[in-house]
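Narrative of activities, Objective 1.

The group set out to show that a structural description can be obtained from nothing but a protein's sequence at a throughput compatible with the screening campaign. Below is one input-output pair from the validation batch, recorded exactly as produced.
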Amino acid sequence: MTRPRALEWHVVHYRCDPDPDAAAYMIEVENARSPWELLGWTSYLMGKPWVAHTDWGARAARVAREHEPRRIARP
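Output recorded for this entry:
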């Protein structure tokens, strides 16, 4: 209960960034357009000690759920 909230990743267009001079980690959309590219970024980010303090895992899980192959119910 005393653990701080995870830092949130935000998806913004560079020109619409409310704080473009912030010392933020950026991933350009062109480099993460597919679930496979996102998986690659996840693998890369897992090596960063600070990623555990962000919501990256939850965001990646949401993308995985959204791209899960639809199963056909069998009679």
